[in-house]
Structures are given as C-alpha cells and as structure tokens.
Design goal:
Length: 600
C-alpha cells in the first residue's frame, strides 16, 4: 500500500458511467505513456505504447503524448511501427512517422517492398494475379505446379482458382513487374528490372530462369539494396490494393504528380475490368476517376502558371515511370477529361499542324499536296525557324521527335513573355560545349515543315485511300478481265501492288508496338477492331485473287472481291471519326449498333 501511495501519480481513475466505455482505450493508453515517461525519457521505452497506438489507430493520442517534442525518436524506433501502419492501412501514422524522424530512403529496401507485397490479403485481386505469375515461375523451375485451370497469360479467373501451394511462396519484384507490365502495357519500360539485374529487353522466360537462379543464392543481394524511388514504389503498392487515403498520401509524396495520377488511373481501370466483385469494381472506378480529376486539376494549375512549361510537362519522359510521358499515359488510360483540358487541346493542335498556321484551310493543304512547288509560295503560312543550338548534353531538332516518340520537339513550343529571359539564359551553354548548327537551306527547311506535319500525312492518306477505292471500283466495274492468259489487266496489277503496300503498312504497325515481343505485339494488334477489319479485307482480297485466276472460280472471285470492296469502304468510318461534325455522330451510331447486336 505504501508503494502504491508513493506512485499515486501513476493511478488513473476511470468511471465507465460518466466517461463512457468508448474512452477506455484512450485512458489506458495515456496511463501507459505517463508511466513510461516517469521511468525514462528514452524513445526505445515507448515502442510498445507506440505499437499499441498504431493497433488502436489513435493518431490523436500519439501526437499529444508521444510526438509532442518530449521524446527524441530515432529511425530504429519507428521502423517496425511504420511497417505495421503500412500493412494495416494507417495513412495518418505513416505521415506522422515521416514527419518525426523516419527517412523513407533508408526504410524501403527491395526486400521490405517484397515483404509488403507478400502481406497482401488473399482476397485481393492484385494478390490473385501476383500468385498466378508466381506459380508460373515456380512451375518453370519444377518446384510447383501451375495454377489450376489458368493459362499463362490468363487474367480473368475467379479468386478461388489460386493454388494454395503457390500462395505460400514469396512474391518477388519480378512478379510485380510482370503484373504492372500487363496493366500498363508497353507505355513504360519494365519496373524493377534494373534492381534485379535484368535488361529491359530480356524475354520473360529467360528472366524467370535467371530469377530462379538468384533465389537459390541466399535470397539474392538485391533485397538489401534501397529503392531508387521509394514513394513511387509505395504509391504503386497502395494503388494495387485500391487504398484511397494511402494512395493519395503517397501520390502527394511521389512527385511527377500529373503522370503519377494518370498511371494510377490506368492501373485501376485495368484492374476494374478484371474484378468480379461489384463493390470492388465500383470503388476502383471511383478512385480512378478521382486520380484523373487530380491530374486534370494539377495540370490546370501548371497551365495557368506557365503555358510553355505545361506543354513541356506533357511531352517530357519521366525516369520514374519507365520513360513514359503524360500524353502516352493519358492515351492508354483513356483519360477523356484530361484530354478535354484546353491546354492539352492546344498542344495537340500544335503537334497536329506542326510549323504551319492552325488557321490554314484544308483546300490549301490538298492543293499543296497535289502540287508540291506551291509550298514555296505564300499559299500556306509557316512559323519562322531559329538557329539550332546543339550542346554536349542536349540535342534539339526543329521538326523531329524527342527520342523518336513525340512529334513535337521542345524548341517548337513557343515560350511566353515571362519565360523568354529564362529560356535565353538556359540556351547559353559553355563556349567549349556549344555548337551552332548552320541553318538549313530554305528549300530543305520548307520541305520538312510541310511534309513532316502530321496533318499533311493524314490529308495525304485520306486522298490516297479515296484514289485506291476509285481504282478498286474501276477495276471491278470496267477493267476486270477474264482469267489468264487474257487477264489480269495492267490496272489490276497496280491494284495488287497497292494492296501489297497496305500489307506492308500492317506489318509496320505490328513492329511498332513498343518493346513487346512478337506474340505480345500480335496480341495487342489483334485487339484493335479496325486492325481486324484490315486483316479481313486483306484476306478476302487474297482469296478473291486466287479464285479469279481459274475459269471455274472466276465469278466467285469477282463476288468475293466485291464484298472485299465493301469491307475496304468501311474503313472510311474510322477516317471520318476525327471530323468535328461527323465524328460524334459516328461514335453514337456505332454504340447504338453494338447495343442492338448484343441485346438479347
């Protein structure tokens, strides 16, 4: 009794009738903290109380009693509590720890990131997809069978199809990289390949074998290395779990705000397509729209601050997101709200017209296309070209793309008045590294200005396609001669060659699908409905040509070629979809027809 009296300051009286049963955890936690303060002021003595505050999610008590300045917290004291806060979705504690001594650069290693992915709930779609890819790698090593009833690239399956044996294995960064590649497509280079020591172009099967070898070497040395961009890694981890508050917190910390928000929008929309539960699908779509709104809002602020810098923001390649740009990610995410922003529309119009004035009439383009010498007259107005400055670290070309992916270079973006002085300063490199490229001759520069503009390519493509259809119709109606040796006619051979060029264009499209492998490129190519239309037209044309070469199938060949002409004509719908008046009507009509065909 005497010892209790001497330590009466540690006694806390709790009256359940007056204070309520809900306040018991608050009273208990405050009593424990008060007792620890009387014993020692060392932060290590308060770790249990901190863990209890995290478990009860009482960030208010932690701020008032543990992080009020009386205790000097160190990194080692907060490390375990930070992990608990991340796993148990306590974003307020994560923010509190980062503000009071925890350095995220020293916290997040590749091994800890893998442990965070291993802690995902078994019911989460992200965990299902990760376990499926893990089982594929383990089946390749011969240690585990593949997922029951799932194909290697299958993505749609119920949550109960995951093998329990595969769930007990550790998920590595390679499985995370494969999942992100499936969700983001070829917009970004593979994530975490550099940490694993893989080349970005390494085949999936080769990478799986290489990782299996690394796994046998005492879990690999890459796990002890720190993440180069920890906030982005945690942001992706939170987005895959559809955690709203946690993902927004990491989005604020990650940097690249516009691109990060668009990337989250893309990931969530792809996950929502694979999710079978209605509630989870709805929340994913809502969070995806929230991130699109954030991207639109942040870009709007940037556009109001500086128009030229906001343009550069849209076409700048981000090293944090595998060399992706905002425009590429917005296109992949189908971010229509983002594209409707006036600033984005202005840049797209500038890219579309190149160095030509945006008020140029279409008839002038057609006339210049048909009579090229007219581009050297005053028929079309062009922007004046400045001398190009090439430094040792920067190479800017007037009409070429940036790294071959963007149709507008940095120097093509006109600076506003407030940016002129700064741009002049930035364009003055040291004398020894400065090299001024001589100005191109007028004939060459004007030629590049006209023919390198995307609008010129489009107008030329439309004109040539109409000419192709006219030639096709003329051959069918007038110049379709009997089988050999009387036919085909010379114009029909021209038609054959023209179709051959269309085949070459389709082959070029398949080879242009980023860094994907052949089967992946073909799969992505086939997914586009207009590519299916093109393939159908080409195959029908080949069938018609083979049939018309023999007397017994000549009429059949002409009938097939007539049907093929109708398929080629359908391609005009895709061409006219960009028209201001026809485009919306075509889209509405297409949706109406789809609903009628799919309606029971």
């Amino acid at each position: 009794a005497l010892s209790i009296f001497e330590r009466r300051a540690l006694i806390t009286v709790f009256d359940g009738k007056q204070e309520g049963s809900d306040d018991f955890d608050t009273i208990l936690l405050k009593a424990l903290v008060r007792a620890s303060k009387r014993l020692s002021s060392d932060a290590s003595e308060y770790t249990d109380e901190l863990k209890l505050a995290v478990a009860w999610n009482r960030v208010d008590i932690a701020k008032a009693e543990l992080f009020n300045g009386d205790i000097q917290w160190e990194y080692d004291d907060l490390e375990d509590s930070m992990t608990d806060a991340l796993i148990n979705d306590k974003p307020q504690f994560v923010r509190l720890f980062c503000e009071n001594g925890l350095n995220i650069l020293n916290y997040l290693t590749h091994g800890r990131l893998e442990s965070l992915y291993c802690s995902l709930s078994d019911s989460l779609l992200a965990d299902i997809l990760l376990q499926r890819r893990l089982s594929e790698r383990q089946s390749l090593a011969g240690s585990l069978p593949s997922v029951k009833g799932a194909a290697p690239d299958s993505t749609k399956a119920s949550h109960t199809e995951v093998n329990t044996a595969a769930s007990s294995m550790d998920v590595s960064l390679f499985e995370v990289s494969r999942l992100l590649q499936d969700l983001l497509g070829d917009v970004c280079e593979p994530f975490y390949y550099e940490a694993l020591g893989f080349k970005p172009t390494m085949a999936t099967r080769t990478a799986q074998k290489q990782l299996n070898k690394i796994q046998h070497k005492q879990h690999g040395t890459y796990r002890e290395q720190y993440c180069n961009s920890p906030w982005v890694a945690l942001f992706i981890w939170a987005v895959l779990q559809n955690r709203k508050e946690m993902s927004i917190l990491f989005w604020e910390m990650a940097g690249e705000s516009v691109l990060s928000a668009l990337s989250a929008c893309k990931i969530l929309r792809e996950l929502s397509k694979l999710e079978s539960e209605a509630d989870s699908k709805h929340t994913m779509k809502q969070l995806a729209q929230r991130f699109e709104n954030l991207a639109n809002g942040v870009f709007g602020e940037c556009y109001q601050s500086s128009e030229s810098r906001s343009f550069k923001l849209l076409i700048r390649k981000s090293p944090l997101w595998g060399g992706a740009t905002c425009l590429q990610m917005a296109t992949a995410a189908d971010a229509r709200l983002f594209f409707s922003h006036h600033g984005v529309q202005s840049l797209l119009s500038q890219i579309w017209w190149g160095d030509m004035e945006r008020s140029t009439e279409v008839w002038k383009l057609i006339l210049a296309f048909l009579i090229p010498p007219l581009i050297y007259t005053n028929l079309i107005s062009f922007r004046e070209q400045e001398e190009e400055v090439i430094t040792s670290g920067v190479y800017v070309r007037d009409n070429d793309s940036i790294d071959g992916n963007i149709a507008l270079s940095m120097s093509d973006i006109p600076n506003s008045d407030e940016d002129m002085e700064e741009s002049k300063t930035l364009k003055k490199p040291p004398k020894e590294s400065e090299k001024i490229q001589p100005k191109r001759p007028f004939i060459v520069s004007r030629w590049r200005q006209f023919w390198y503009a995307p609008v010129t390519s489009f107008v030329g493509n439309v004109l040539m396609y109409f000419l192709f259809l006219c030639l096709f119709a003329y051959v069918l109606l007038v110049d379709f001669k009997p089988p050999p040796p009387d036919g085909p006619s010379s114009l029909e051979f021209v038609l054959y060659f023209w179709v051959f060029t269309l085949v070459c264009e389709e082959i070029r499209q398949t080879s242009y699908e980023g860094n994907l492998f052949f089967l992946q490129r073909m799969k992505k190519y086939i997914q586009d409905n207009w590519n299916k239309c093109d393939l159908t037209a080409i195959l029908l044309f080949l069938l018609a040509v083979m049939c018309r070469m023999f007397p017994w199938s000549f009429k059949l060949g002409r009938a097939v070629m007539s049907i093929d002409y109708m398929v080629f004509t359908l391609r005009l719908i895709h061409i006219f979809a960009i028209h201001k008046q026809l485009g919306p009507k075509i889209i509405i009509l297409g949706k109406m027809v789809t609903e009628l065909l799919t309606k029971n």
